[in-house]
């Protein structure tokens, strides 16, 4: 059972769309594996795309949130709040087979749908984790999503299972639940220094590693408590330089310069803390994947819920506006980059 949290402490880096296309490509490539997408972002962007994009997802999400219990991650967490320290006997009410709403998807792809109620539940979840009794309340609560992955793996029986967990940029309690459920972190970033600082925050928040300001809070941070209470913390697996502008088939100098600063930052951390990297014996730069800017292909794919392997070049009319042109060359270039990324998983 493999599991990947898509996370950066900065929004707008394309993590939800990357989670969508990677999940679809992984499911297409490995039809004997069940791929579960767990949407732990209250905005539910990856769920919207999986459920067919702008045309079909609003009705689909209304249907899923209207069921009792809600057929979403919030429905699962509400059930756990009702009986915090007992695992659920049946998790099937929370699993959606998105091909029922979006025929473009592989049949072996499943979804625990996102839900904006997640934000409302977060304070109740946090308070439950702080109960004095039982003494391991925090550990039990922070592993609720991990319990879900175990139950889903059992649901798959003899089939392999892999989990793609889309996390919110914030370090809210629901993000912590996602990280505690994952074995690996995929960190998408874009070409700006705020991405570099956000990656430093990923390291500080997940592992308690950073400058003197971070050290002040080391005794109360997530990493310290996880270590003390035996909660597994995921490892840094792959760094995706996303939406890179290319000239003559190579990243622009600006993108190369920013990527180099991020590479230097991570390699400095690697020298001192190799154990937080999934590939601890090699430099983090070896775990970098460059994904070119995908222009119209991304817009059409995201708005229609079409995986890249099903997307065809040509004009597409979206939302009643003028035709959007998907060109073959950038589409092929993006597909190849995605294949390299999935090769790394």
Walk me through the structure.
With 345 residues, this protein is an alpha/beta fold. The chain has one domain: 3-Layer(aba) Sandwich (Rossmann fold), CATH 3.40.50.300. Helices cover 45% and strands 17% of the residues. It has helices spanning 15-29, 45-50, 57-66, 73-82, 117-129, 137-142, 144-155, 173-181, 193-207, 212-216, 222-229, 253-272, 295-304, 328-344; strands spanning 2-6, 33-40, 109-112, 160-167, 184-189, 235-244, 246-247, 250-251, 288-292, 314-317, 323-326. The strands form three sheets. Strands 3-2-4-1-5-6-9 form a seven-stranded parallel sheet, sandwiched between helices. It has a two-stranded antiparallel sheet with strand order 7-8. α1 packs across α14 (328-344), α4 (73-82) runs parallel beside α5 and α7 crosses α8 (173-181). The radius of gyration is 20 Å and the shape is globular. The chain starts with a strand and ends with a helix.
